[in-house]
Amino acid sequence: MSKSKRRHRLPEGRTAWKKSAAVAVPAILAVGVMASAMAEGALAASFAVSGTSFQVSSGELSSKGLASFVEVDRSVDGKEHPVALLGIGDAKLSDICQAAPVKTPLGTVVIKLTAGGDAGKVTASNLIIDGEDLVGDATFGTAQIGRDASTLNQVPGVKGPPGKFGLQAGDITVTEVRSNAWSATGGNFRLRGLKLDVSLDGDKCF
Questions:
Q1: pLDDT of residue 1
Q2: Per-residue confidence at 46, pLDDT binned at 50, 70, 90?
């Protein structure tokens, strides 16, 4: 077996896992928040983001409402990252995948979290994603585009400063969801079939 093939995945065993976990801590802090059952939804900008954005994907996402406005996330090094804050109330996802590449002395480690699929739908209340982009096929209920961000009321707790451009919509369904995000938070997460994988040069979500 060639060196490249031997480096494709971390070898199984306690020692390899400890090394991987130590170098992948920044990504775990960013991606692992999706697996936290938080008492209530909070804006993603309420904490400093890591220096690594990550992928989020789902086959289908549905919600009773959506609210969005432009926000700025800040990392501990002082860098600012412009994002679209997406607030999604009572979200249901057919499946979910998150992946973040992290450069380490061992090479690029990909930490990947998956859930849902055959195990059942993933659910969350007040899901907040700070994303650089969002791709998918969407169907909206009544939509309001250009509404002042301070008056948004479709998703509890999701509103911005006065004067900022905002939008919101009623019932939504988005299929083939793809997004690059800096942070994500949510309340009352239920991740059926949760799996966390750490590997060298591993596959991402898309």
A1: 53
A2: low
**pLDDT tens readout for residues 87-125:** 998 899 999 999 999 999 999 999 999 999 999 999 998
Residue type at position 120: G
Q: What are phi and psi of 26, to 5 degrees?
A: -55, -40
Both structure tokens of 187: 């309340």
- Structural tokens at position 121: 């739908």
> Cβ(191)–Cβ(35) under 8 Å?
yes
Higher pLDDT, 175 or 44: 175
The average confidence (pLDDT) of the chain is 82
SS (HEC) of the chain? CCHHHHCCCCCCCHHHHHHHHHHCHHHHHHHHHHHCCECCCCCHHHCCECCCCEEEEEEEEEECEEEEEEEEEEECCCCEEEEEEEEEECEEECEEEEEEEEEECCEEEEEEEEEEHHHCCEEEEEEEEEECCCEEEEEECCEEEEEEHHHCCCCCCCCCCCCCEEEEECCEEEEEEEEEEEEEEEEEEECCCCEEEEEECCCCCC
Place of tokens 């083939």: 176
- List CB contacts of 40: < 8 A, sequence separation 6 or more: 126, 157, 187
Residue 127 exposure: Cα atoms within 13 Å on the Cβ side: 24
Tell whether pTM > 0.90: no
DSSP state of 40: S
